Amino acid sequence: MTAVQVDRPPRFAATVRLLHWAMAVMVIAQLVIGALMVTTLDHYHLLRAVHVPLGVAILALVVVRIGNRVVCRTPAPPATMRPVERRAATASEYLLYGLLVIQPLTGWAMLSAGGYPITLFRHLHLPPLLAPDPSVYALLRQSHTMLGYLLFFTFTAHMCAVLFHTMVLRDGLLRRMAPSCMNRARRTRDRPVRPRTLSPR
After folding, report:
1. Domain count, the chain
2. What angle do CA 159, 164, 165 make, to 5 degrees?
3. Start and end of every Cytochrome b561 bacterial/Ni-hydrogenase domain (predicted)?
4. What are the pLDDT digits (tens) for 9-20?
């Protein structure tokens, strides 16, 4: 009996996948914290104490990730994706990278213009990017809010597209970026079961 060959879609490099999921968790946490900061005054200072260093960490990590994506090979997209969908996916990816760079820098500049310290941990501070200026602070605060909404909608659209490919088209798009443990579990589940033969008594 010959074993059934299961097609395995090409995957991103391990470093790309690790950075992808680490950033996904950090961005979701940052969006939730940012929403709580503008909708409630409870624990505002605690939320801000987490929001600032997390934003700096996202900025540093996205720079590493961009460099990693330049070095590592990008696997071919599924055949179900039409050329226009591939261009849209590439454009949304570039938009996400741009927002993840610009948004933390805008927040850093906003705090600097407001005269607030950019505290990472206790006595560890970042230098200000701008001199204190109330009018610049107000402009950057509004920009930071609008960019936050744009990041939320872009991130949500990205997740909806992945879910559509995973649950409707079932074309293996998510498996290109899935952690190794998920792919091992899927291969185990899809492994054909050999028929049991009864030995004569």
Report:
1. 1
2. 100
3. 11-179
4. 678 888 899 999
